[in-house]
Amino acid sequence: MSISMIWAMAQNGVIGRDNSLPWRLPRDMAFFKEQTIGKTVLMGRKTWESFGGKSLPKRRNVILTRDQSYLAEGAEVIHSLEEGLQLAAQEELMIIGGAEIYSLFWTHADRLIVTRIDENFEGDTTFPELDWNGWNVVSETPGVKDERNPYDYRFVVYERTK
């Protein structure tokens, strides 16, 4: 089974505001695409709707929602953690948000890919308070700060210790 989680997070734990990102970092968006292309991405309904209800191209899009009647053109809909774990038994699953979905899959993940932004942002969604014991940094790459990417940030990959 292979479950990775990917997200960007401000210094103060903010991951979203008004169902959107409170920052603009094109290099992070390119990194996200590079990490998820050709893979199965699993997200909650709100994350799906933050993309305008459009599937991410060249990825298998899976939405996890409690709403049994929810339909999403261009995506598969599942309704339980167990269904998500069945997918992960067959292929690498990339969890892409939001906060409730990260909490749900946290104990099952074996890799975290986090863009850490060295700024505080106003927001209404923060990364859940979870136990980071048992995670080791395996790589940390500074992001390039420039006129289009105005913040200090870094890409950090964690793996669960066995």
TrEMBL record:
> What pathway annotation does it carry?
Cofactor biosynthesis; tetrahydrofolate biosynthesis; 5,6,7,8-tetrahydrofolate from 7,8-dihydrofolate: step 1/1
Q: What are the recorded Gene Ontology BP terms? A: dihydrofolate metabolic process; folic acid metabolic process; one-carbon metabolic process; tetrahydrofolate biosynthetic process
SUPFAM superfamilies referenced in this protein's UniProt entry, alphabetically: Dihydrofolate reductase-like
Catalytic activity as recorded in UniProt:
(6S)-5,6,7,8-tetrahydrofolate + NADP(+) = 7,8-dihydrofolate + NADPH + H(+)
Q: Which domain of life is it from?
A: Bacteria
DHFR domain ranges (all copies): 2-160
| Enzyme class, first EC level, given as a word | oxidoreductase
This entry carries the following GO cellular component terms, namely:
cytosol
Enzyme Commission no: 1.5.1.3
InterPro entries assigned to the protein according to its UniProt record, in alphabetical order:
DHFR (IPR012259), DHFR-like_dom_sf (IPR024072), DHFR_CS (IPR017925), DHFR_dom (IPR001796)
Give the record's family classification.
Belongs to the dihydrofolate reductase family.
Q: What does this protein do?
A: Key enzyme in folate metabolism. Catalyzes an essential reaction for de novo glycine and purine synthesis, and for DNA precursor synthesis.
- Name of the protein described by the UniProt record: Dihydrofolate reductase
